[in-house]
Amino acid sequence: MARAQAQAEQPQPTTGMTLIVMVGLAIAFLLLMAFLNVIKSGNLLSETNLLFATLIFYSGAGALYLGFGVTGTELYVKFASLATWLGLIANTAAVAHRWYEAGHAPFSSVYEMLLSFVWTLAVLTLVAEKKFGVKVIGTVTMPVAIVGVVLMQLLRTEVHPLVPALQSTWLHVHVTLAMLAYAACALSFALAMMFLIQDNMKTETFLAVTSASTLAIYVGVVFTRFEKWGGLSLVAWDPERKSEVFISKGVRLFVNVPDLGWLMTLTLLVVASPLFFYGLARWKKNDSFLTLANRAVFLSILLQVMALVMFVVRANDARYPSLDADGLFPTSLAASPFILSGLVGGVFISLLYLLLLWRRPDLGRLLPSADNLDRITYKTICLAFPLLTLMIAAGAYWANQTWGSYWSWDPKETWAAITWLVYALYLHMRITRGWRGRRAAYFAIAGFAVVMFTFFGVTYLLPGLHAYA
Amino acid sequence: MALDFRAVGHKMWRTVASIQTGVVLLILVVIFAAVGTIVLQRPVTEPDEMQSAYSPQALRILDAVGLTDVFHSWWFLGLMLLVSLCIVAASIDRFPNSWRFFSRPYKYPDESFRRASHPQKSLAIADEETGLVAAERALHSLGFKPERVVREDHFGIFAERHRVSELAVYIVHASLLLIFFGTIVDGLWGWGGTLNLNEGQTSNIVELRDGTMRTLPFAIRCDSAGQENYKDGTPKKWWSKLAVVKDGQDVQKKEIVVNDPLLYSGVRFYQASYGPNSKVEKFSLVATPSDGSGQKQEIGLAVNDTVPLDADTTVRFAEFFPDYAVRDGQVYKKSNYLDNPAAHLVVTSKRAGKDFDVWLPPLVEVADNSKAPYQFQASDLKMGHFTGLQVSHEPGQWGVWSGVMLLGVGLAFVFYVVHMRFWAVPVCDPKTGKCSLWIGGSANRNRDAFEQRFNDLVGLVEEDLKTVPNASPREQVASLAGIEARELKLGN
User: Fold this and answer.
1) What is the domain range of residue A156?
2) How far is A331 from chain B (nearest CA, A)?
3) Same domain, A242 and A140
4) Which of A218, A416, B142, B352 lies at a C-alpha separation of 20 to 30 Å from B484?
5) Shared-domain flag, residues A165 and A271
């Protein structure tokens, strides 16, 4: 991620080869280091090494895709997909290794789900690129995959045996379908966004949307975790048992990281400023405020990076006091994966906006036509919808086998049904009412927002039976 | 008046069957379902948790409008019924049209259709028969079965594939209704609850999810139950050996595990949990006389057992608390979890003429351990185990599962099976005598891919018209000789 970021801010390379040579050298160097390490440890195909190789190749691919997004040099894409292929091989090996070691499909912990999700994402990226010719898609998906692999390093768990309720083929079917369906929804979202770019949506509208999303992340973090005297609450982590610390059943122990709350609040204010200037520009009908807003985005990226770095430094393997109990308790990045991915995601969203701001004409040239994107979005949803249906059905069948009830309206189930209904509405509007273009794209985006809420929001905000995931 | 009624009825029908109504209803379902996940729901929340989350007034309002139990409220059920009604009405409204389309395929395109159709292509042909044969062959090679359509004054070629795709959306809607029907049947006649059995216990009373009890016409006995662990101590498997007892007879026996229930007369028993119950199977103690004389003894007790320690001393295991608390000189049971156990022994001594309350651990407020003639030390506590069963009766689930399967099939047809039609009509201009072959096609979905296929077909026909293969099908054609003669001439 850090490398990809550096790449985005770099001026355009003089020749197309520069970046490729640089990325190639970096990959070769890292592989050499890894290889030396492997020789020392004597275990070539351990999961750590495979994941490391995955990370290296995906990072290389991400940098090259981003380079393609920025410069539009076709050559980058060839090398980027080569790197993606190599990363995918390593990723597949890691999945297979995990599967072999655990004796069950790798879906039973957040770590294993991420492993599968990243794999699916890489496959879909290659499919979208080769089959539909959406070359720039890697610019969006590869960084997400990189974030996934980094998160995996943090959430790394030992092979856990399955508790009785999870020993069911139907569960594996259910989770596989869920991963596929959600990846297809993610793809339809990215395509809908690209459609909006090709449909000549105003750049400042993207400014408003990206700033609002980043703002939402910080509002979420600050309003739920800001503690007295400017601290930030994080879940305590037991490094020996590799799990969160619970005071009593279902109640987590929080530690208070001093001063980090103030930094988050400051970042929140700066992140809010582009939106403020945008509002001002709309209200006063004065476009000079937009220039200010764009500068504010740049500033907000710097601050977000700082907040991220401080968060990583402070929250990783340190001990802090708690408001609920006496003494110092350890916490770790692994205890706050969602705050971490939120912060990384915020940086990433803002960077994507900068990419659009600076390279819009090039992007317009690189992306397929609006009509094509509209059609591909629809096709992706035609793929996602049956997958969603089967996912819900398999889940219901499993629940019936395990708890004796196929539908109990627990929040995750309900939200899965809501997701299904939203996409059903999309299909009805499209097929019977002939919704095309913008309205359909907004719908696809809304659908993905619901998917994200079902995936993350429900797990962390609403309690229910799905405690395993 | 009657006419007015009919008009009103017609209007209502149009409203119910319209897509707008469907969309509005679905949006309402989405909103209320979302509310149901945000507001705490009575069936899955402890009452005191509800009270601490909302003020009494808010709670009264929420209860009154049913927001604390959205998914069982009458208005949510009503909404689902309206959705079903809307699906039925919309399907009935549109079905006759689709059925006409399905049962009477449009085989010969008339002139106005030909003009508006897309994609289409006209190819110059020597005469009608040549064009038709070429089209037939091209369609054959693409895997279609072309059919000659002969009307009084005109003729053409028609080929199609997957006509059933036109009805796929009704399969989907019917399957949804089937699923709704199944869940409604379960909602009305189904029930579910839990039954916890200690090893050796027989019971026919199930505690339902709403807290009421249900008596089964037969009883279930748990002969034994157990747990297998992984090496690291996490549970791997729970099992229970169950027997169905009816009129004093064992009518069915099965060892159930998680995901493999016992089914008897429509009632399913699922292994849901396993664990120690709050009953002591055997409490082992070492008793030593307080005055230092005599031997240590090992004794084992279940609750209410009395064991003699010497000629005039007995000990009774009076009470057991799996999780105790002491308040105001009284011992209370805090919970049923084996967290913090306490045992109450009563030592009766004839010599002293009184009872001594011995507590393990020695609870200062209530125990007189030190005065008792014997001192006790716990050596082992063996708890009984219970097996937790989920019991459910779901008469409608067959509707649900068959609906789900039908839904899968329907969706596969809706999204991936395309009804494709091709027409080929030779058109001759009566003035000039020049003929052309009009080729048209239509697909009900995935039109861009279809256009590719259409172009392939046109390419094949063109090729066929250009080359002069000596293929056998031509020999069947009456005007064969003429064509060959002409083309031979061209070749020269």
Assistant:
1) 2-201+360-468
2) 24
3) no
4) B142
5) no
DSSP state of B190: -
Residue A349 lies in a domain: no
**A182, A451 in Cβ contact below 8 A?**
yes
| Same domain assignment for residues B24 and B56 | yes
Render A196-255 in DSSP notation, one character per residue. HHHTT--HHHHHHHHHHHHHHHHHHHHHHHB-GGG-EEEE-EETTTTEE-EEETTEE-EE
**Which pLDDT score, from 0 to 100, does residue A389 have?**
94
Task: Kindly state whether residues B63 and B12 are assigned to the same domain.
Answer: yes
Q: Are residues A318 and A405 in the same domain?
A: no
Number of domains forming the structure of chain B: 3
Are B404 and A393 inside 8 Å of each other by CB? Answer: yes
User: How long, in residues, is chain A?
Assistant: 469
ipTM greater than 0.90, yes or no?
A: no
Structure tokens at B445: 């979905």
Is A207 among the domain residues?
A: no
pLDDT tens across B79-111, in order?
A: 988 999 999 998 888 888 888 888 888 888 888
Kindly give, in sequence order, each residue whose CB lies less than 8 Å from that of residue A303, ignoring residues fewer than 6 positions away. A266, A267, A270, A271
Residues in chain B closer than 8 A to A402 (CB atoms): 258-259, 270, 272
B400/chain A closest Cα distance in angstroms: 9
Q: Splitting chain A (469 residues) into consecutive groups of 10 residues, what average pLDDT does each group show? A: 44 52 70 64 66 82 77 78 89 85 71 81 85 77 79 64 66 81 87 89 89 91 82 81 70 82 92 92 87 89 90 82 80 78 85 83 81 88 92 90 82 91 91 84 92 78 48
Q: With 90 as the cut, is the pLDDT of residue B211 above it?
A: no
Count of CA atoms in the C-beta half-sphere (13 A) of A410: 19
Of A97-111, B429-443, B460-474, least confident by mean pLDDT is B460-474
B422 domain residue, yes or no: yes
A165, A393, A421 member nearest B29 (Cβ): A421
d(CA A135, CA A127): 10
Amino acid residing at B297? Q
B38 interface with A at CB cutoff 8 Å = yes
Residue B248 lies in a domain: no
pTM over 0.90: no
Residue A82 falls inside a structural domain:
yes
